[in-house]
Amino acid sequence: MAEQSLRIGRTAMMLALTEEEELINLNENVVWCVGKVGTMDSQKIVAAIETAAKQNGVINGALYREVHSLYHAILEAIQGVTRGHLQLGGVLRTVGLRFAVVRGKPYKNANEGDWIAVALYGTIGAPIKGSEHESAGLGINHI
């Protein structure tokens, strides 16, 4: 198991769960970004997270392997939020999510390379105010 200080998934979840990033003691060896997305379209979740990760230097958008790794981590996190179903608007569900993307080396052996974690936290439910409930998801993938 990765050391406590190297747990990128834990760090991502902490960032997604708090509004005050400066209160989190981040390992200096990670690169991260946070953002928010509200939508009835899962494609918009992917687009928002991918855009934030590129703009904040978490991934290099010109390298397919980095974009591809992020994509799979995002899909895994969305499955957590949607309980295994990627549909939202088609089944009249909407989300309001805070997201965090963390990139780092979760293993002592640097040859294991970089990994990426995507955490989502927020609400999901019918598109009627007050009809939503909390939900969370976490996806981790190697780069």
UniProtKB/TrEMBL annotation:
One function term, GO molecular function aspect: RNA binding
UniProt-listed Gene3D superfamilies: Hut operon regulatory protein HutP
Gene Ontology process terms (BP): L-histidine metabolic process
Top-level taxon: Bacteria
Pfam families: HutP
Keywords: Activator, Histidine metabolism, RNA-binding, Transcription, Transcription regulation
Family (UniProt): Belongs to the HutP family.
UniProt subunit comment: Homohexamer.
Function according to Swiss-Prot or TrEMBL: Antiterminator that binds to cis-acting regulatory sequences on the mRNA in the presence of histidine, thereby suppressing transcription termination and activating the hut operon for histidine utilization.
Name of the featured protein: Hut operon positive regulatory protein
Taxonomic lineage: Bacteria, Bacillati, Bacillota, Bacilli, Bacillales
